[in-house]
Write a structure and sequence with these properties.
Order of helices and strands: EHEHHHHEEHHHEH
Strand content: 5-15%
Distance between the termini: 9 Å
Largest sheet: 5 strands, parallel
CATH class of one domain: Alpha Beta
CATH superfamily of one domain: P-loop containing nucleotide triphosphate hydrolases
Structural class: alpha/beta
Length: 198
């Protein structure tokens, strides 16, 4: 089974592309979703509050995502701490998850900042979803309730496409210029063939 990372900057459309792969019968590990669940583990909460203070959970114990996002996207040290706390745990979950799909030709690991964190080195192959900055900005404006300033700040925490594309084995252009499905089908077939040669 080939472990394939799929990443792209915020607003690139990687989640939609993952849904196309799922329709082809490929299983997708949503790293960012799993990371969100980890904040509810008592050990993670304890370490988070011990380092960054209170105000990130409400009286019912629910994570106040807006407060955490505001902190980590304006404080590089806090961002690094959270990444070093959460990412190894996500990796452990992924390793356990792959055990259920050992007979599959390949699985996808979807994450937003896979290259920045160096997690791509744990993957056998890497797919990068590229889209123009203005198009991504417009998509986020329609999708989220973030202010333009918050969107720009989040975009600024990610490396630009031109730095990431050379690191990828496959690139999907999601600029609405090239049809997506043929690009996905081509990569899918190449990965199936690579598995057959293993």
């Amino acid at each position: 089974m080939i472990k394939v990372g799929i990443t792209g900057n915020i607003g690139s459309g990687k989640s939609f592309i993952c849904s196309i792969f799922e329709k082809l019968g490929i299983s997708v590990f949503q790293a960012d979703k799993i990371a969100g669940e980890l904040y509810y583990e008592s050990e993670v909460r304890s370490k988070l509050e011990g380092k960054l203070g209170n105000g990130f959970y409400d009286e019912n114990g629910s994570l106040i995502r807006a407060n955490l996002s505001k902190r980590i996207f304006s404080d590089q040290e806090a961002l690094r701490f959270v990444e070093e706390l959460i990412h190894p745990l996500v990796r452990q979950r992924f390793i356990k998850w792959t055990e259920s799909f050992s007979n599959d030709p390949y699985v996808l690991y979807e994450a937003a900042i896979m290259i920045e964190t160096g997690h791509c080195k744990f993957m056998d192959k890497l797919i990068y979803v590229a889209a123009d900055e203005q198009l991504r900005f417009d998509r986020i404006c329609k999708r989220d309730t973030l202010s333009p300033e918050e969107i720009r700040k989040r975009m600024g925490n990610q490396w630009p496409d031109e730095e990431k594309i050379p690191l990828a084995d496959f690139v999907i252009n999601n600029n609405q210029e090239i049809l997506l499905i043929p690009q996905v089908l081509s990569i899918h077939q190449l990965l199936i063939n690579a598995h057959k040669r293993m």
